[in-house]
Amino acid sequence: MLSQKSRHALHAMLYLARQDGSVTAAEIAEAERIPRKFLEQILAQLKARDLVIGKRGPTGGYVLARGPAEISFAEVLRAIDGPLALAPCASQTAFRPCPDCRSIETCEIRPVLIAVRDATAARLEGTSLAQAVAQQSPDLPA
Fold first, then answer.
1. Which controlled-vocabulary keywords does the entry list (predicted)?
2. How far apart are CA 60 and CA 121, in angstroms?
């Protein structure tokens, strides 16, 4: 399930994708109805993952670190919530056996979780901020 923090991060990133210049956290918070303190934590995480650039000073604010066509939903979600997989045994970036795992090789659940991860990752990696702003659905292989 998508966390509230991730939803807010996506909304903030989409807001930035629609802007021509930098905007303050207060502007984003008001426009997207995100609590400002919560948004500042989110922006700090996005900045740490090089997805946004924060500028200080009277003309300061936030801008995307790359063009909106170059930033995928998957990057944003991973920056906020970590791996996309439903379980650690299905993760490509943070693999580890589940705490109650008896055998990774014979687990009947893991293949399904891997398939779900693959389908989810394909859709999220194939959807850029620019596509979402333009309300375009990404073309994915069947």
1. DNA-binding
2. 34
- Is the pLDDT reported for residue 128 higher than 90? yes
CA dihedral 34, 38, 39, 45 (to 10 degrees): -150
pLDDT tens profile 14-59? 999 999 889 999 999 999 999 999 999 999 999 999 999 998 877 7
* Residue 12 · residue 43 · CB < 8 Å: yes
Would you say 46 and 79 are in contact if contact means Cβ atoms under 8 Å apart? yes
Angle (deg, nearest 10), helices 73-81 and 4-17: 140
Options 2.30.110.10, 3.10.20.740, 3.40.50.360, 1.10.10.10; CATH for 4-64 is 1.10.10.10
